Amino acid sequence: MTHRVFVIGHPIAHSRSPMMQNYWIARHGVDAVYDKLDIAPADLADFFRAFRAEPYIGANVTIPHKLAVIPFVDRTDGAAQAMGAVNCLWWDGAALVGGNTDALGFLGNIDAAAPGWDAGGKHAVVMGAGGASRAAIYGLLSRGFAVSLCNRTLDKAVALARHFGAGVTAHGLDAVPDLLVTADVVVNTTSLGMIGQPPLDLDLAPMKPDAVAYDIVYVPLETAFLARARARGLRTVDGLGMLLHQGVVGFDHWFGQRPDVTPDLRALLENDIRAKTPGA
Ligand code: NAP
Predict the structure, then answer these.
(1) What 8-state DSSP symbol labels residue 35?
(2) Does residue 254 contact residue 90 with C-beta atoms inside 8 Å?
(3) Interval 84-100: pLDDT, tens
(4) Which of 45, 136, 168, 216 is placed for a possible disulfide with 147 were both Cys, Cβ 3.0 to 4.6 Å?
(5) pTM for this structure?
């Protein structure tokens, strides 16, 4: 029987998950197909009825359903609990699990792109306190980092720092220049630098030369922040890699095999981004 896997969201047309997952499905010779499904919030209960009746093997979950799916699963994993969001569904025996693979994607990407990045100092500066920053914070805490969380709206940083507890301090974006001096990793999780948004304008000169700059924005493929970090001689990590590495974790949950993030696959997604986004 051909297994069926989905990404559900509303809207969903932009999702690159089918391109990525179907590439691995073909490479691994798995009898499965991965589709995107536009599910309006009012249709979520019907989706889960069908999901359990078939049963489907798994799914990714994206905006606006990352919180709304929680009542429909049998349990959530530790990452989903810590992040307050589910982005992946899989079966553990008869139990439908709602998990979150973003932090493992965040870590898998930096492990691959900047080997040994977490071996030395342990101070990270994370800019942005929206949905995506939670994966960065959770991942960095799991590797023993102290996190300075900086956000335009200070209240949001304070609330998120309180949510994670010890190990995270909250600051405004005005604190970033001073915090960069001791940073081993600096991560942009704001939408600054995305196509259509202003660039993240940051002087990286005070940073330690062996520090790592990580931008989770991936349209454009190289943001001005990363270009500047590269010119400064820092190791850089981009957002497309995070997307690819979180996909690895989902595939492993569904099919019990860990696929590789190959240059071919990366090129496939890069070409798609360039084709659909002039200037990316
Ligand atoms: P979000 O929840 O809307 O959060 C946006 C963040 O950006 C907030 O901290 C916001 O600050 C900040 N921000 C927006 N405009 C700003 C400005 N002009 N100046 C300073 N700060 C500004 O968005 P998200 O879901 O976290 O996504 C953020 C980015 O990450 C997007 O570009 C998204 O595409 C990318 N992303 C990448 C991956 C991946 O796999 N690579 C995964 C998820 C998301 P305030 O709180 O002050 O509004």
Answers:
(1) E
(2) yes
(3) 999 999 999 999 999 99
(4) 168
(5) 0.96
